[in-house]
């Protein structure tokens, strides 16, 4: 244990790395679908961000994911339950909205089209991530994919937590902006075809 890492720490880091890879592969590609479900229910974007972040936090706190048969359904269930709890705490939440959310079940397995779309979305995010400056890319990967805390990243890279927070913000903003630009491309192509 001369280098400061023992077998327990290495095992913990390896487990966290495996969990982060599982989340990136099995859950993250389905996030747009979950966000769209929230938007349809007129949930504010900042609330959606909080719910999704809370759901990711609950997943990364699991000791194992071996018991999860359908990752996207499990994640959706967490998001739905968090929303239901939030609405119940609000005194003005309509009863029918709560009952609709609680009774909704996402039991369908993804169609082949959804699976392809998921794979393409994952590849798109990875391509956008690769375009970030090296330091920003690494910080975003550690925070959003591997699930490190801001403090862990700051200690690991020898920078302040504020610098980590800023790099995550810059990176996520760049990825969202790149995603939006890609989403607008077919619309622009469609518009130009209609003019001709």
Could you explain the architecture of this structure?
The chain has 196 residues and is mainly alpha-helical. It folds into two domains: 1-109, no CATH class; 111-196, Winged helix-like DNA-binding domain superfamily/Winged helix DNA-binding domain (Arc Repressor Mutant, subunit A). The protein contains nine helices and no strands. It has helices at residues 7-26, 31-40, 45-60, 71-89, 95-103, 112-130, 134-145, 150-157, 161-195. The model is unreliable at 92-96 and 190-196 (pLDDT under 50).
Our count of helices gives 9
Task: Give the assembly state of these chains.
Answer: single chain
For the largest beta-sheet, the strand count, sense and barrel status come to: none
User: Can you tell me the overall shape?
Assistant: globular
What is the N-to-C order of secondary-structure elements (H for helix, E for strand)? HHHHHHHHH
| Unreliable segments of 5+ consecutive residues | 92-96, 190-196
Strand residue content: under 5%
How many domains would you count in the coordinates? 2
Q: What's the total number of strands? A: 0
Percent helix: over 70%
N-to-C terminal Cα separation, in Å? 70 Å
Radius of gyration: 19 Å
InterPro entries: RNA_pol_sigma-70-like (IPR039425), RNA_pol_sigma-70_dom (IPR014284), RNA_pol_sigma70_r4_t2 (IPR013249), RNA_pol_sigma_r2 (IPR013325), RNA_pol_sigma_r3/r4-like (IPR013324), WH-like_DNA-bd_sf (IPR036388)
Protein name: RNA polymerase sigma factor 70 region 4 type 2 domain-containing protein
Keywords: Sigma factor, Transcription, Transcription regulation
GO biological process, one term: DNA-templated transcription initiation
